[in-house]
Amino acid sequence: MAHLLSTSCSLKIPSCRKTSFQSLDQSPNAFPTSFTVKTSKSLVRRVVLPGESSQRSHTVYATTTPIKQEASAQKRSSLHQSSNDPSSKQKRVMVIGGDGYCGWATALHLSNKGYEVAIVDNLIRRLFDNQLGLDSLTPITSIHNRIRCWKSLTGKTIELYIGDICDFEFLSETFKSFEPDAVVHFGEQRSAPYSMIDRSRAVFTQHNNVIGTLNVLFAIKEYREQCHLVKLGTMGEYGTPNIDIEEGYLTITHNGRTDTLPYPKQASSFYHLSKVHDSNNIAFTCKAWGIRATDLNQGVVYGVTTEETAMHEELCNRLDYDGVFGTALNRFCVQAAVGHPLTVYGKGGQTRGYLDIRDTVQCVEIAIANPAQPGEFRVFNQFTEQFSVNELAALVTKAGEKLGLDVKTISVPNPRVEAEEHYYNAKHTKLIELGLKPHLLSDSLLDSLLNFAILYKDRVDSKQIMPSVSWRKIGAKTKTVTA
Ligand code: NAD
Ligand code: USQ
Questions:
Q1: Would you call 271 a catalytic residue per the annotation?
Q2: What is the helix (H) or strand (E) element at residue 89, kind and residue range?
Q3: How high is the pLDDT of residue 444?
Q4: Among 18, 116, 192, 431, which is least packed, fewest CB within 10 Å?
Q5: Is 305 a catalytic residue?
Q6: C-alpha 407 – ligand 2 centre gap (Å)
Q7: Which DSSP state fits 31?
């Protein structure tokens, strides 16, 4: 089992450019959030992929040094509609976190739909996996190969900016260079268990997520005032109150006076709390600076295939099944495929909103196509169905048995601090009103997810399945996560 904190780590990037990460220490910023392309002193790299001769395919920007404005940025502006016209369809979309699970599928979907897309990512998620000794169920190729494959299949270019959005200089240059009409922000540390490993991970998560989002807000104010921010929040911001959950706001009458206020937030991990802080910062800047923003409070995502990722094996998305990054339904399908009992935490009454990854990409597209007004902080609850963990386990058991699998369930002592039996009724009508056509969890989807898991079951490391992070045991001491 790999140790969590190694002193350095490098990722292999094809096309002969070696990258290395900064060394780690125990400080709040201990986790490397950017890297530089080492083969040249120049911090601006234009990567021309084999078979693409001199044509621009994608650009790799390193972090801290100002980047020369490229001529192509000017040329481009004649190709796209003016983003200062709020009524025009937004065309240029920056996908921050575009190498991740939701981001990769969304970047391809938007590119397929005719948007000009740039991915901004520091690839830190791949580093987390390396540090923790984890791997996606599905083999995923480098971001460079992914983009090259997409280009060769469709002729469509996705630009690539590699760097850390916590580095404002880097982010500014990506804004000046790409000139986005919309920014979809997926680029955060998104695992609740990761944020609860130890103090340094808690601090890293909140620093990375809150400062990254703050930088995006400043970049919009400074360089692209009309740009629409589509920010991935989470249903977990609301917690599990004993009343219905509304979409962002609640009208309250108190001592005879009535007001519509932000819905109370009761997040239950340092990760989920980072999303609450983000939401507050975004709401404030909408008011103060006239930023236009949509906060997508997304539920738990399941599935792996979208229309675009299915086009070629090199476009395949990641699927996490481990105890840190794996989420409930995806984990249960992989567990069923390898004959591991389904790991229901505690009583299993924990109820959450869920959605198919095909709906994630659809929802984001809908949000971009129907932008918020200047100064508007719009909140959509982005999920399609609610399930308790016990209900998910029962559905996977039934689907597994149909495929001849012997599926068992165990109750695992809950490593989290959360209600295990509670009321849950969350509204989710706004995206439907704007045209979302949900892919509801069906037998056929479960079949295909289970078959996917069976296909790759030899890649499963069973030692990674049981949860190893405890909400109660988190402390200041740096922890090594062992299987
Ligand atoms: P992921 O870990 O697969 O992807 C996140 C990506 O962001 C990674 O590629 C990572 O390298 C990048 N990133 C992180 N910090 C960055 C930084 N400072 N600068 C540049 N890039 C950075 O996560 P995901 O599952 O795709 O989730 C994406 C977003 O959606 C997250 O904000 C998450 O909170 C939200 N969300 C996810 C789910 C889910 O079930 N996966 C559910 C609800 C909400
Ligand atoms: N759970 C189990 N067994 C497991 C895994 C999870 O019982 O093997 C339970 C958890 O205790 C929890 C529920 O299932 O009650 C959901 O857990 P999860 O790991 O599937 O999801 P969560 O930690 O909430 O986080 C995921 C994403 C996060 C996103 C969130 C949406 O990692 O980025 O914000 O889903 S939401 O849950 O709506 O907040």
A1: yes
A2: none
A3: 86
A4: 18
A5: no
A6: 21
A7: S
Instruction: List domains and CATH numbers for the chain.
Output: 92-464 (3.40.50.720)
Give the Å distances, CA to CA, from 289 to 221, 282, 283.
Answer: 7, 10, 10
pLDDT tens-digit profile of 402-444? 999 999 999 999 999 999 999 999 999 999 999 999 999 998 8
Half-sphere exposure of 27 (CA within 13 A, CB side): 6
Which residue, among 430, 272, 431, 269, has the nearest Cα to 363 in the 3D structure?
431
Mutate to test the pocket of ligand 1, among 165, 166, 190 (most ligand atoms within 8 A of CB): 190
Residue type present at position 249: Y
With a CB cutoff of 8 Å and minimum separation 6, the contacts of 343 are: 331, 332, 335, 410, 412, 465, 466, 467
Four-point Cα dihedral 478, 268, 362, 334, nearest 10:
60
| Exposed / middle / buried, residue 27 (Cβ in 10 Å: 0-12, 13-18, 19+) | exposed
What pLDDT was estimated at residue 483? 58
| Residue 272 pLDDT > 50 | yes
Distance spanning both ends of the chain, measured CA to CA: 6
